[in-house]
Amino acid sequence: MTKRLYNSRILKIVLFCCGIIFFSCKSTSVSQREFERFEPQSAYFITDINDSLPYSSEFENGKFIFLRFYHITYGKNFRIGNLWRSMLGIMGNAPDGNYYSHVAINFNLTDNFIGSTMKGKNTIKREKVTDLKSNVFLKTVDASRSSCTVVAIPCTEVEWENCKALIEYAQKEDERFAYNLSSAFFMPIIYKQNMTKMKKTDFSGEDALVSMPLEKEPSEYFKDKRSYICTGFIMKVLSSSIAKIGYEVETSGVNINGFLPGDFFYMDGFQKLFTCRFEYYNEAVEEYLALYPQFREYF
């Protein structure tokens, strides 16, 4: 999954401690310049689309799990979200050139993705970018300068059902999950360790894998670990549901809380769909489905 990660990212990690303050002071002004490319063109709601999306025949009988990446800007420079985005910017951007500070997951395209955030009693929450006040993490976001990118990860019917079961379990209203602050704080160190492990691991056995239904109740998959950052929660769901991802995580022994949002771009079969402004998400999905009706069943 991450063998092809840019080697330059490792070198950028050493700049974290000295650069975070400088970048945080400039976070709002920089984001304004970055956001210029997200302005809607003419009457279209999609600001960036993958025109060459291959709906490969090998996935015609399969399913897709969707990830939504957030390019978030808060109104005040020193909001923790702006500082977090600045740190990720120092460590490296995603392959599409954007800096994503958060990622959420869903088994369809409706504006109801689920992710792990810092605020609230249960940190695993549903997120609606068209209704920011419904989520404590998003309600102070500057919607006029925030956008999201939607991607699709291919999987089998069985693996899709696995993901669906884990997502539905995790998003229940209670206090089962917490945000892993230590992983967020030590991200540069954990990230470097993960990249080293991935490079040294032999994944030759992954071609013989067969997708299987969940072997135990969804609650059992979260029994030993209940604190995550946003990427860690998604890696937990994907590695427990999709055979190939689970094999890579288990074989390499990586820390699931040690990945950046942009790392998901390197998953096999990963397909970026489109980017849009928060407020235009539903219209952007409809616009995309008009071009690619194969995804209609997910909305």
What is the average of the pLDDT values? Answer: 77
Shape: globular
Portion of residues in beta strands equals 15-25%
Distance between the termini: 28 Å
Helix content: 25-40%
Instruction: Record the strand order, biggest sheet.
Output: 1-9-6-2-3
Stretches where pLDDT is under 50 for at least 5 consecutive residues are 2-7, 10-43
Number of DSSP strands?
A: 9
- Helical stretch count? 10
Q: Multimeric state of these chains?
A: single chain
Radius of gyration: 18 Å
Order of helices and strands: HHEEHEEEEHEHHHEHHEH
Structural class designation: alpha+beta
Q: In this structure, how is the largest beta sheet organized? A: 5 strands, antiparallel
